[in-house]
Recover the amino acids of this structure.
């Protein structure tokens, strides 16, 4: 008996992939998007989808399972964290008062990621709502060079930062998922 997780993938064509290319919803036929804005949104969409894919098929206990002490990181914590971050990015766009935190003080997004189906459902709903609200706020600024908010951040920089945030956390999700049930892949 060993506590080592058996590594596995659903892919049959390429053993280092999450899913076979024909089954991967991130793969699209045809040419890549035209223009900088469409390209940035395409990358963001794919990273958002990757995070959801890394969480699929897990129960609340598995989603809330923390990696290694003293880390508070879990897949569910990442979902909640990204909902919080999406909300915060809207604060960068506005000159007004900042929106309140979704989950409370620092790291509450991770500490509140508990193995409860109601928490899981609410966390996904929060993420979807916050993503849609941030997308809508950014859509009001089609000029990627426009500088907004108190810090006069360029819309382009904000979009690139969003992609970077999701990409980094998708890397965390890769490792967290492998710790939960051994599933690996891009």
């Amino acid at each position: 008996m060993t506590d080592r997780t058996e590594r596995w993938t659903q892919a049959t064509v390429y053993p280092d992939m999450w899913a076979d290319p024909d089954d991967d919803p991130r793969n699209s036929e045809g040419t890549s998007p035209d223009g900088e804005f469409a390209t940035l949104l395409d990358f963001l969409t794919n990273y958002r989808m990757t995070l959801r894919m890394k969480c699929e098929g897990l129960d609340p206990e598995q989603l809330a399972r923390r990696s290694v002490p003293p880390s508070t990181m879990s897949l569910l914590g990442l979902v909640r964290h990204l909902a919080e971050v999406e909300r915060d990015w809207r604060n960068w766009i506005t000159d007004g008062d900042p929106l309140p935190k979704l989950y409370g003080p620092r790291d509450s997004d991770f500490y509140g990621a508990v193995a409860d189906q109601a928490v899981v459902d609410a966390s996904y709903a929060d993420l979807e709502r916050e993503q849609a609200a941030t997308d809508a706020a950014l859509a009001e600024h089609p000029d990627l060079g426009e500088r907004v908010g108190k810090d006069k951040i360029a819309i382009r920089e904000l979009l690139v930062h969003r992609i970077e945030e999701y990409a980094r956390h998708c890397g965390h999700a890769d490792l967290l998922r492998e710790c939960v049930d051994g599933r690996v892949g891009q």
Observations:
- The radius of gyration is 18 Å.
- The chain has a mean pLDDT of 90.
